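Priority: medium. Attachment 1 of 2:
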């Protein structure tokens, strides 16, 4: 039960971190509380990979493990072409993501623990030493030289006594329940504008339980189902009581939105295929890094020659329930570099983070959180962890190994 690297969290960031660490030569354990890998992509109905492509010319700029996931989805006809919504994303089938993630981890030689809840972590001096994990058989302890927190809520960092903060400047973005509708006619054109007008009309008629009037609306590959992000909730993702309240409320909203969808042409027979099952949380705890990425770094990118990861999703901030999201767009060349220090704990040298836990201010955090960018920060954190387990780690060494693994970082 001793590893070189332990990765907590099996979403986009955790998958990339574990595969990257293992390919860099580290014996690696990936711990996931759910029944499958994929995170928000498979457990929260967030079926759009955002941040892999630039907004203006739809150029792919995030590769490595992310590129392999895309390739796997394409081989099985389970992903759309890059599509311009407000920015560019691909829409995918979540069942195929489960299979692709399993295959990637198996091929790399990652040890995967599903159905395993992180309970606590031990710290000796300034380093994490062990984690305690619960399953139906009891509580188990695992040790490692280096750890990666890809939990979304920075649970590992919190349990290990690393510096964390909740949100930014006292605020966190609201969450949204992904709702998938079936029974939509193949020739029905369900646009964001049509849904917005239908929601407004329903509100005017006094239909209760509707919050957001607009959000991302897309047809899914394979099934042709409609995915919507409209049911907004504000909650503290660290708190089971508050999250339970929000999820019950969001499911009631889903039923209200179904009534709205059924008023659209070609949608009279619509039904709910699935909700979530978990809310799509956009922000919770952040690990305090050695460097904090700022809104200015995103909007006015510097050369990325010392970056270990690339971000390409604009600043998309969701300030409150039912309040339109705030967008700000990346300057030339349409992507920005993410330094190693953003992923590396300031007070715990053997702890890295990835995904929405990384250290960005209010604006930068609203860009870094996207799943496409999570693949990039995860891949970098996993490689950094593997190199750190063998000795000293540097930006140059991490970049060299990432390039060897196909990350295609800008020079």
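Attachment 2 of 2:
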């Amino acid at each position: 039960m001793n590893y070189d690297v332990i990765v907590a969290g099996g979403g986009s960031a955790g998958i990339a971190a574990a595969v990257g660490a293992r390919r860099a030569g580290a014996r690696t354990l990936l711990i996931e509380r759910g029944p499958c890998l994929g995170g928000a992509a498979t457990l929260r109905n967030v079926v759009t990979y955002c941040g892999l492509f630039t907004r203006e010319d739809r150029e792919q700029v995030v590769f490595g493990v992310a590129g392999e996931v895309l390739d796997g989805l394409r081989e099985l006809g389970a992903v759309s072409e890059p599509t311009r919504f407000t920015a560019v994303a691909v829409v995918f089938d979540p069942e195929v993501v489960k299979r692709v993630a399993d295959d990637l981890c198996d091929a790399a030689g990652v040890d995967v623990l599903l159905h395993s809840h992180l309970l606590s972590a031990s710290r000796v001096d300034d380093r994490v030493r062990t984690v305690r994990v619960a399953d139906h058989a009891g509580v188990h302890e695992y040790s490692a030289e280096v750890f990666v927190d890809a939990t979304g809520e920075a649970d590992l960092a919190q349990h290990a006594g690393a510096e964390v903060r909740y949100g930014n400047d006292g605020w966190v973005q609201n969450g949204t329940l992904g709702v998938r509708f079936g029974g939509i006619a193949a020739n029905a054109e369900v646009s964001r504008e049509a849904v917005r007008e239908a929601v407004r009309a329903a509100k005017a008629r006094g239909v209760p339980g509707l919050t957001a009037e607009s959000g991302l609306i897309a047809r899914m590959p394979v099934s042709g189902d409609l995915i919507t992000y409209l049911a907004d909730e504000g909650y503290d993702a660290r708190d089971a009581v508050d999250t339970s309240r929000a999820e019950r409320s969001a499911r009631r909203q889903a039923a209200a939105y179904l009534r709205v969808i059924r008023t659209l042409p070609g949608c009279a027979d619509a039904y709910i295929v699935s909700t979530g099952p978990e809310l799509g949380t956009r922000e919770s705890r952040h690990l305090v890094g050695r460097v904090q990425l700022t809104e200015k770094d995103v909007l006015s990118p510097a050369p990325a020659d010392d970056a270990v990861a690339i971000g390409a999703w604009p600043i998309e901030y969701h300030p409150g329930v039912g309040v339109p999201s705030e967008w700000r767009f990346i300057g030339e060349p349409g992507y920005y570099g993410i330094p190693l220090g953003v992923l590396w704990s300031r007070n715990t040298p053997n702890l890295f983070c990835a995904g929405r836990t990384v250290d960005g201010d209010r604006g930068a955090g609203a860009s870094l959180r996207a799943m496409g960018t999570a693949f990039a920060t995860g891949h970098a954190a996993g490689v950094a962890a593997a190199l750190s387990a063998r000795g000293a780690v540097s930006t140059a060494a991490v970049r060299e190994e990432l390039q060897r693994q196909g990350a295609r970082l800008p020079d």
